[in-house]
Every structure is written in C-alpha cells, then in structure tokens.
Amino acid sequence: MTPADSQGIYVHIPFCRKKCAYCDFFSGIYSEEIQDAYVSALAKQIKNTAFGHNQTHTVYIGGGTPSSLSSENLVLLLSSFKNVSFSEFTVEANPESIDEDKLRILKGRGCNRISIGVQSFDDKYLKLLGRLHNSDEAKAAVELAHKYFDNISIDLIFGIPGQTLADINNDLDRALSLSPAHISYYSLIYEQGTELYAMRKNHIVQPVDEDIEADMFIEIGKRLENSGFTHYEISNFAKRDMECRHNLNYWAQGKYYGFGAGAVGFDGEKRYKIVADVKEYTRRILNGESVTDEFEDVNPEFEKIMLGLRTKRGLDFSEIKDFENKYKTALKDAVLYDLIKVKGKRIMPTDEGMLKNNELCLLFLK
After folding, report:
1. For 58-80, what is each residue's pLDDT tens digit?
2. 196 and 48 in one domain?
C-alpha cells in the first residue's frame, strides 16, 4: 500500500482508567461527563470532514485506551465513519476494558483489526509497568477477541527493569500460543515526566544492561521469524500480508488526517497538531473554531531517509536527487559497519542496522 492509493485517519482517545508508569502519550483520567462531551465533539468533527472522493482509507483509533469508552460512546464514534471507505480499521484495546459487548460493537461497526496492549505475560512486570490487568486476563482477552477477529495484534515491551532473556522467551511462548497475526515489540524508553523516569532517576529501578537488551532484540527477531513472522519494521512483526497498513502509509510519507485532542496529522507538506487539551478541544468543536494549534514544515528528503531506514524494505534512493554523491560517505560507512545492504537503487537495513537504527540514521545526518 502506497500514499497514492491510501490516506490514513488517526483518531486519538486520551482516556485511561490509570496512567501507566512508562507512558508519556497525551492521556489521563476524566469523568464520564467529559468523555461523553468529547466523543460527541469528535464524532461531529469526523462527520463534517470531506474525505477524499472514492479514496480508500485506513483508520486507526489509538490512545489512551479506546476500549475504555462506554459502549454507547463506542457506537457514536464508530458510526461517524459510516460514509468512509476503508481497507483497514484498527482499534486499540486493553485486556481489562474489553468485553464481548464491545467486541460485538467493534465488529458490527466496521472494525477489522484489533491491537491489544498486553506488554508482558509476567505479573511482576505488569505491576511494575502500572498495568491494570494480569497475565491470565491478557490471555483471556486475546482468546475472546479471536471469536470476532482474525487480524489481532499484540503489543509487548522488552527491556523492563529486572527482565531476563528467559523472561523474553516466556513472553514469546505465551504470545505465540495465542496465534496473533501481528506483534509489536517495543523497547522500554524512560520518557521524562513518567513514573518510571523518576524511579530510574531516584535509583529505585535500574535499566537493563545495553548488551542484554541487544540480545533480547536479536532473540525476539530470531524467534518470531522462525515462527513465520516478517520483521518488517524495527518494532513490528507480521504474518504474511498482515502488516499494519496504516503504519505502512505513515512510513511511506503518506498523508493522514488527525482527529481528537493531541492528535497529529500530515497533509503532504506540513505536519499539524491538534490542541492537546480535552476541554478546549471540545469547546472549539462545539463553537465551530479551528482545533489546529501547530504547523511544522517537513523536510521530505530527511523524512524519506529516516522513515525508510526504519523498515526492512528500506528506501529507493533513485527518488532522492544526487543521493549517491550527497551521501557517499554515509553509504560507505553504513556498508562497512554492516548496517545496510545495497541492492540496485535500494538500500535496506540489515539486522544490525535495525538494532542500531539511531547510529545508522546519524550517519546520514552528518
């Protein structure tokens, strides 16, 4: 899927029942009254948007925790897409807030892909991360989702303080036993302002050794590729033809709409951000005011390189004028350090290049 035949739609639900210890996304705990008003405003904005005529879209509802919405608000939100043609419709869910009623609503209102935030199948790490579910509830949620969806993605985290390679293999065993079509496996990042960041700063927790974390990354890739998954992006693995189309469009510099407080969109030239305030967003929508707060010019060449090098497919450098001359040193060094391989007019990150993506990208920024 390319930008020419798809345009993404991202919808942000900034509501959670509890803020996780590692999360720095725009989200928080709000009253039912505020949630009701927000979803009503959000549905109004989506309904009033003139989407591309005869254009197929991907829809991704993220957060926050979209599955924490009431059944009534889920129906209202999903109904706002009834005139949108889409090839993929993903909704994020957490194990403790998904049930049979909500799964029926999602399925009946057009959702065809569900992404479940498991993070770990080990209760001690779930507790450290501040998750509300336990490992048994995570397993039960994925099994329940299988009654309604074939396209299920599981989110996991590695590099949690105290985590070992044996723990990673246990999580992989549990995840693979649930037969997901897609797995996102993220390295834990200590984002400033989060509870885990403060715990690290105060020496309450200690990060996993960098070499051990690298071993975890390699083991994850090996295990999943041996189990029929393609490592198609640094943190993402998919069964054949089950890659996340919404994210593929993003990595290919495709356009995408942003809806909801704190959401980001891209019109092909500028990146824009919606006001990151739930009450202010709701007020502006109801008063017919603009909710866009920031615009950012995008360097298309820089973004093409940085986004392309995140994916196994890499990038076609014939699309960048004078690439081989401008980046002659970077190309030479990247090949020398076994970070990329060159095939015709395409450069693709090696496994080492995926592991050391920051170092790889820095070579092209010099």
Report:
1. 999 999 999 999 999 999 999 99
2. yes
> What values do phi and psi take at 152, rounded to 5?
-120, 130
> Which CATH number belongs to the domain containing residue 28 in this structure?
3.80.30.20
Residues in contact with 3: Cβ distance below 8 Å, sequence separation at least 6, in sequence order: 249, 252, 253, 254, 255
Q: Helix and strand tally (H, E) in the chain?
A: 15, 15
Q: Which residues, at least 6 apart from 331, have a Cβ–Cβ distance to it below 8 Å?
A: 324, 340, 342, 347
* pTM for this entry: 0.95
Identify the CATH number of the domain in which residue 332 sits: 1.10.10
User: What is the identity of the amino acid at 253?
Assistant: Q
- d(C-alpha 22, C-alpha 19), whole Å: 8
User: The tokens 């590695």 sit on which residue?
Assistant: 158
pLDDT at 2: 41
Q: Is residue 276 part of a domain?
A: no
Give the separation between CA 44 and CA 48, rounded to whole angstroms.
6
Residue 136's pLDDT is 98
3-state secondary structure of 224: helix
User: What's the pLDDT score for residue 53?
Assistant: 65
How many Å apart are CA 94 and CA 96, to the nearest integer? 6
Intervals of the chain under pLDDT 50: 1-4
Instruction: For residues 339 and 357, give the distance between their C-alpha atoms in angstroms, rounded to a whole number.
Output: 8
What is the DSSP code string of 276-321? S-HHHHHHHHHTT---EEEEEE--HHHHHHHHHTTBTT-EEGGGST
- Residue 353: which domain range? 300-363
Asked if 203 and 197 count as a contact pair (C-beta separation under 8 A), the reply is no
